[in-house]
């Protein structure tokens, strides 16, 4: 199986641990998630969540002040989702985060939505593109787990 799909808690980076907790919480809300999804060349979201009514949420996981301050692309994610959230741990200085975005407090095991991100509904054509990217990414990753020698090179993920 691909090594990057089999990481344990001991090998995950802090942001990946936050993403795991976020995905667990969103799953309990009947969302499904894909981590590190590329909506368009040059952007990679930490978590994209697809809700039971087709809603698309993006969650950016920030493990430190420096991690947040070095992120100059996050506003580019807004046009690819219905709601945008930051996920941080309990020690993160949340006053740094823009008030017009959602806020999730998370750890490696769970999360809690503290502030709901404002809704900016995607246009139907863009929603279709995002749902297709989500489905293809999830299916390719599952297939790579089942058949790791199938050759998932260019275009994987």
From TrEMBL:
Lineage, top-rank taxon, reads Bacteria
The name under which this protein is listed is DNA repair protein MmcB-related protein
**Source organism per UniProt:** Pseudooctadecabacter jejudonensis
């Amino acid at each position: 199986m691909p090594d990057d799909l089999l990481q344990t808690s001991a090998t995950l980076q802090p942001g990946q641990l936050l993403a795991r907790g976020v995905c667990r919480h969103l799953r309990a809300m009947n969302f499904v998630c894909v981590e590190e999804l590329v909506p368009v060349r040059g952007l990679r979201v930490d978590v994209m969540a697809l809700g039971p009514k087709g809603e698309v949420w993006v969650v950016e996981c920030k493990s430190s002040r420096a991690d947040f301050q070095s992120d100059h692309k996050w506003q580019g994610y807004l046009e690819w989702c219905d709601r945008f959230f930051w996920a941080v741990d309990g020690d993160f200085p949340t006053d740094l985060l823009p008030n017009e975005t959602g806020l999730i407090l998370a750890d490696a095991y769970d999360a809690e939505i503290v502030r709901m991100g404002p809704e900016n509904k995607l246009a139907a054509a863009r929603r279709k593109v995002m749902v297709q990217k989500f489905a293809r990414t999830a299916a390719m990753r599952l297939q790579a787990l089942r058949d790791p020698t199938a050759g998932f090179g260019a275009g994987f993920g």
